[in-house]
Amino acid sequence: MEQGRMQRFFRAPHSRDRGLALGATRVTLPGERGTEGEVAVVEPPRLSGRARAWPRRSYADAPYLLLLLLAYLVPLLIVSPVAEYPLIDDWNHALSVRRLVERGELWIADWTATTLVFQVFWGALFAWVFGFSFTALRFATLVLSFAGSAALYALCREFGVPRPLALLGALTLWFNPIVLGLSYTFMSDVPFLALYLLSTLFFVRGVRRGTDRDLLIGACCAGLAFLVRHQGALVPLATLAYGVLARWPPRLLLRRGAIIAIPPALAVGGYLLWSRSQGLPQTQGEYITTLLRDGPRLWLPALKLAGYIVIYLGLFWLPLALGLAPGLVRAVAGWPGRHCLVVGLWAAAVAALVVLFAVVGEKPAYTERGGLIVHPHGWLMPYLKDGSMIHPGGLAPDDLRGARRPFMTTPMRVGFTVLVAGGLALLGTAIYRRAVALPDRAGEGEVGRGRADGRGVGLLALIGLLQFAGIYLPSVRILGGEWLSFDRYLLPLAPLAIALGLWGARGVRLAPILATVGLLGFLAYGLIGTQDWLAYNRVRWELGQGLVASGVPLYQIDGGMEWDGWFLYEYSRAQRMPPRTPNGPFWTYLVAPAVDSTYVIAFSSQPGYEMIARREYDSWLHQEPVYLYVLKRQEAPRAP
């Protein structure tokens, strides 16, 4: 029986490849005394005239996609994405777009850790149409962000999730503060997420429906996803592994294998040829070197990171977990004792993991070079703090000197941790419920009905496993230190957690009020955090431009990583300048060594500097006034 359940997850229709007519169905006839019996083929009615064998198009999903679009626009109307300054590392990506638009040259900066090629062309398309600006690049990201949410809706529908729940799943992804905040940038995380989701959707469709066309579209999307981030190559690899595990016939495996593999292989080969002629960006080479040199000794931090990743899965579908919690609890109450024991052991394992991290504790924040405040990974959510989108200071990394006023108190973090751990426990319960096809009590769902909707779930699980492993590639350079990884690196697992959770909970009654509270909580934190992030960056940019207008040279202004990178990265590389800031933060020697930091824009005062100006920024996150400061070194170094 258990073997049959596993085969259900690794089985795809082979009607076109085993001599069956289009639309034919294999039916298992009852055998004697519970044996499996014979397999018969039921042919569909023959079509005459111009009738087609393809299923009729349904537009029943259109109203839900329209609702998704309207809900997608709401945050943009509340917090405007129009802003002419870079965020996090997207100054680096914008430099590549600007060079392509102005010179017709594909150039990837050495600071770039991702392949980025497709994203550069995608951004250039918007720049050619609307003119180069950071706002145009943000809208390039926002378009792909909506495409990713729509793809998740379609993926949920593919597994038989009812339309209202599929819409809630798509909104859970869009309102996720990590996704929402990054959609206001030109970072590579959201473009990759969208292409990766489209690839997953079409691969799942191709496997479930037996259509080569869908597999080909999925393969092309996977190739484009690789040309944004390296992990895109893992999606076709997972699909090929699925074909082997599903025991596709040799001829079918050969044909489909070619369809699945060729487009991504062309993307990978083309990128390698280009990088061989242009030179592999320095940071990408350093990742490979670090992985080969230090990989074996990083097993302990890698194990710790694995525990953090698992807990973050509970965060990714938290609004849905809240809405489905009463129904899932009632369903479990009606299960046989051995299954209740499994669920209890799973919940105990989640609690033990949370307690283990709490016992290990966290190191206090400390001041690094140049007054940069470092928050090591910790013992409560958010575990991955420094450099992540969700952290105690609000939303998005702090790439300025000084201390940003904290937002999350310890009681808030304790409550946050409990909610996320509960979400993880419910996620495992929902998947287990569907995986073993447990009957629920009357009124709580009919798991046995529509079991064919489980076809292709094995592919989704394989894609998730490889993406889980893929998180370690961008994390390897920071894995052995205070920063294990960043929460945005975990995003590829978010839509899979949502889809698998909704598939597992199909038929369970939803508590609309609880789900709404969860979604509004996601949206509120994302919007308020994004507004705070944009507000202080806008003031930071205005302060820097004010210094330039007063006659201060750019090389004397340390306005944080984004400012220094945008204005001084190319100049520093062209002049091959050594670092000119004594004991400066990382960007003053890795990104813009030309800056001498005579003037500094910071969250707080700095030793050896005097305050010459301060400026309040409008923050929805804090009730008390918050400021940015312009500081001047008391003894300025010589001009270059």
Key structural traits:
single chain; two-stranded antiparallel ribbon; four-stranded mixed sheet
Please characterize this protein's 3D structure.
With 640 residues, this protein is an alpha+beta fold. Among the domains are: 2-42, no CATH class; 296-510, no CATH class; 530-633, no CATH class. It has helices at residues 2-9, 62-78, 90-103, 117-130, 134-158, 163-175, 177-182, 189-209, 212-226, 234-245, 250-278, 282-294, 299-316, 318-333, 337-360, 410-435, 457-470, 472-475, 493-504, 512-549, 561-575, 587-590; strands at residues 25-28, 39-42, 366-367, 373-374, 390-391, 394-395, 557-558, 599-602, 609-617, 626-633. It has a four-stranded mixed β-sheet with strand order 7-8-10-9. A hairpin with a 2-residue loop joins strand 5 and strand 6. The longest helix has 38 residues, at 512-549. The protein is globular, with a radius of gyration of 26 Å. Residues 12-55 and 441-452 have low confidence and may be disordered.
Give a brief description:
Helices cover 56% and strands 6% of the residues.
Write the SSE topology.
Layout: H1 2-9, E1 25-28, E2 39-42, H2 62-78, H3 90-103, H4 117-130, H5 134-158, H6 163-175, H7 177-182, H8 189-209, H9 212-226, H10 234-245, H11 250-278, H12 282-294, H13 299-316, H14 318-333, H15 337-360, E3 366-367, E4 373-374, E5 390-391, E6 394-395, H16 410-435, H17 457-470, H18 472-475, H19 493-504, H20 512-549, E7 557-558, H21 561-575, H22 587-590, E8 599-602, E9 609-617, E10 626-633
Parallel strand pairs: 7-8
Antiparallel strand pairs: 1-2, 3-4, 5-6, 8-10, 9-10
Helix pairs in contact: 2-5, 2-6, 3-4, 3-21, 4-5, 5-6, 5-8, 6-19, 6-20, 8-9, 9-11, 10-11, 10-17, 13-16, 14-16, 14-20, 15-16, 16-19
